Amino acid sequence: MNIKKEQLGKVAVLYGGVSAEREVSIRSGTMVHAALVKQGVDAHLFDTATRDVFDLKKEGFNRVFIALHGRFGEDGTLQGALELMGIPYTGSGVLASALAMNKVRTKQVWLQNGLSTPLYYVLPRGADIAAVQAEIIDTLGLPIFVKPPHEGSSLGASKVETVEQLQAACELSWKYDTHALIEQCVEGRELTCAVLGTGASARALPIVEIKAPSGDYNFHNKYNGNETVYVCPAELSEDLTAQIQTLVLNAYRALDCAGWARADVLLRAVDGKPFLLEMNTSPGMTDHSLVPMAARASGLSYEELVIEILSNARVHVQRQVG
């Protein structure tokens, strides 16, 4: 449902927030806001860390662009508040946002739908790692990745090459979350694929390949460094490109995502099989971000991208029955 710019009304760009990804969110929101204002949209920055979200209703905002990343912005909590106020918002609804924010639940849904994702193990904070480390290594092998299930931007994530490193990696993850997600390492190419739209009309954008220094796509290499190389469209055969885009669209629909999102994918070197890592329902929109990069490769400018996303803002819960 694309609408004209003059019909967008008074728009709040929600940014900042209280998650560990606040810094990135400020960058994303600032760029989104500038792009909207440049096109004549009545857009206003709104930091949810310093403002009461229910002021959105009091101040007469007609719709919101969610440029928040992480908890209390991308995890369904904010989406629930916006549903209560009846204010259309960008991206996925309450359930899809909550599912995608939880990497463990996301993997469970994908596996139930027959979609490939690396094997995993979950440890609650304070668990006796020594008692289970042999089982973990037997199941997943080495190396493995340890990460918080509810964080993004590689925060709290570690690559574990030896058994001795597992304890420290889990303790780092537990600083960010109540559990540590321990994931099988799929050696190969690192890809990402964005999706725009909802349901049957959703479409995959060109795939981006990420070539980070030493293969470590950490927070610095994502947002602050200039050493990471991005190839868009990724150098893949037509058949493999179509296979990965179909996998991502199926993953998007399995979680009931809407509006836009971006899936991270690993392409296993030994056999060229793609594995889903996670789904980001409020991806970055900074000058280093991957969705704008993919959009440009498809002929969509940054300004056109934000207008398309915003024009598809909606409430997801039917307010009247019958």
Which terms would index this structure?
3 domains; Rossmann fold; 21% strand; 11 helices; six-stranded antiparallel sheet; manganese; 34% helix; single chain; 322 residues; Dna Ligase, domain 1; alpha+beta; 13 strands
Helix and strand topology:
Elements: E1 10-15, H1 22-38, E2 42-47, H2 55-58, E3 63-66, H3 77-85, H4 94-101, H5 103-112, E4 120-124, H6 129-140, E5 144-147, E6 158-160, H7 166-174, E7 179-184, E8 188-196, E9 203-204, E10 208-211, H8 219-224, E11 229-231, H9 238-254, E12 260-268, E13 274-280, H10 290-297, H11 302-311
Parallel strand pairs: 1-2, 1-3
Antiparallel strand pairs: 4-7, 5-6, 5-7, 8-9, 8-10, 8-12, 10-11, 12-13
Quick recap of the structure?
34% of the residues lie in helices and 21% in strands. It has 322 residues and is of the alpha+beta class.
Q: Which value, in Å, is the CA radius of gyration?
A: 19 Å
Portion of residues in helices?
A: 25-40%
Could you name the CATH class of the largest domain?
Answer: Alpha Beta
| CATH H-level homologous superfamily name of the largest domain | ATP-grasp fold, B domain
Q: Sketch the topology as an H/E string, one letter per element.
A: EHEHEHHHEHEEHEEEEHEHEEHH
Q: Could you give the count of β-strands? A: 13
Main β-sheet description: 6 strands, antiparallel
Alpha-beta classification? alpha+beta
Number of helices: 11
CATH topology of the largest domain: D-amino Acid Aminotransferase, Chain A, domain 1
**How many domains, as an integer?**
3
CATH architecture of the largest domain: 2-Layer Sandwich
Could you state the oligomeric state of the chains shown? single chain
Strand content: 15-25%
Q: Are there runs of 5+ residues with pLDDT below 50, and where?
A: none
General form: globular
Q: How far apart are the first and last residues' alpha carbons, in Å? A: 23 Å
Mean pLDDT: 93
Family: Belongs to the D-alanine--D-alanine ligase family.
Subcellular location: Cytoplasm
Catalytic activity: 2 D-alanine + ATP = D-alanyl-D-alanine + ADP + phosphate + H(+)
Pathway: Cell wall biogenesis; peptidoglycan biosynthesis
